[in-house]
Design a protein that fits this description.
Keywords: Acyltransferase, Transferase. It comes from Coprobacter fastidiosus NSB1 = JCM 33896. The protein folds into 2 domains: about 70 residues, no CATH class; about 220 residues, Glycerol-3-phosphate (1)-acyltransferase (3-Layer(aba) Sandwich). Helix 9 crosses helix 12. By secondary structure, the protein is of the alpha/beta class. The model has no long low-confidence stretch (mean pLDDT about 90).
Length: about 290
């Protein structure tokens, strides 16, 4: 394998969580070992101080501690353990808006790219006795301890059809579905932190499987550094979101914080008729989400 750009570097970053996924021993991240294994010609030319910089950037030591300490935890238990380790608290507002019965699609903004997904798993996993599925494609996509409750969606390549089948089965099940329709963590836009445009796929699935949508506003922010880095990357003309390598650091910066999840009233699936396009309906739900904080 030859490194051709930051996309390949991020692929290596993701693989850090994957190498021991099928083994029984705790996953341990070793970025130097993985790069030298997957790109040996490049890996041997990288100076040691660069590896140390990368290890610090992805919080390798802290991540490995958590993966060792909570190796026996899976799914909701792992989410609970991680929040406890970071002393993160989560409050719900509007829980009375959730009907006692029914299968729903919970649509949320994506402000953190890590702890927002973990928090949803912790809070709603207990509420629904672990019968939840969260679609993710950021930092948490390939973290094995969360595999029981996460849907790692691969939108490209040979696994695309398999991923589509997994998604279909999830929507057909009795599990509650949680989606981040933006697909990426929130960015600073026109002076405010908010999601990029929402993708229409969740509206299509909502109609197909007749699930009402419950809007969720997750109240939280990453650091100013994260947003500045993203802005500089865009100004340099780099399309790939290399700021994602800082998401582990952003997670640890959230120690001792309290996040608030605002829950809106269900939007019946019949609402999404032909009067708007699927894309327009997706932005309609996005607007409803951000209205929850006003």
């Amino acid at each position: 394998m030859k490194l051709k750009g930051v996309k390949e570097i991020y692929a290596i970053f993701v693989s850090l969580f994957m190498d021991k996924m099928e083994k029984e021993e705790p996953i341990q991240i070793d970025i130097e070992k993985v790069i030298k294994k997957k790109a040996p010609e490049v890996g041997k030319k990288i100076p040691g101080f660069v590896y140390r910089f990368l290890e610090k950037t992805i919080c390798q030591e802290q991540m490995n501690y958590i993966l060792r300490e909570y190796a026996d935890c899976k799914g909701v238990d792992f989410a609970d353990a991680l929040l406890s380790e970071l002393n993160v608290k989560v409050k719900l507002e509007g829980e009375e808006n959730i009907p006692a019965e029914g299968k729903f699609t919970f649509a949320s903004n994506h402000p953190l790219g890590g702890l927002d997904g973990v928090s949803l798993v912790s809070v709603f996993g207990k509420k629904y006795n672990s019968h939840i599925k969260v679609q993710v494609n950021d930092l948490l996509m390939n973290v094995a301890p969360l595999a029981p409750v996460f849907l790692p969606i691969n939108k490209h390549g040979r696994q695309a059809k398999d991923a589509a089948d997994v998604l279909k089965n999830a929507y057909e099940s009795d599990d509650q579905m949680f989606v981040f329709p933006a697909g990426l963590v929130s960015r600073r836009q026109k002076g405010r932190i908010c999601d990029l445009e929402w993708k229409k796929a969740f509206i299509s699935k909502t109609i197909q499987f007749q699930r009402d949508v419950i809007p969720i506003y997750f109240e939280g922010l990453n650091s100013s550094f994260f947003y500045r880095f993203a802005r500089i990357r865009r100004k340099l003309g780099l399309k790939f979101n290399i700021e994602m390598i800082y998401l582990p650091s952003e997670m640890f910066k959230s120690k001792n914080k309290t996040f608030v999840i605002h829950i809106g009233k269900p939007i019946p699936w019949q609402t999404f008729d032909k009067s708007k396009s699927l894309f327009e309906w997706a932005q309609f739900v996005k607007d409803k989400v951000y209205e929850l904080k006003k």
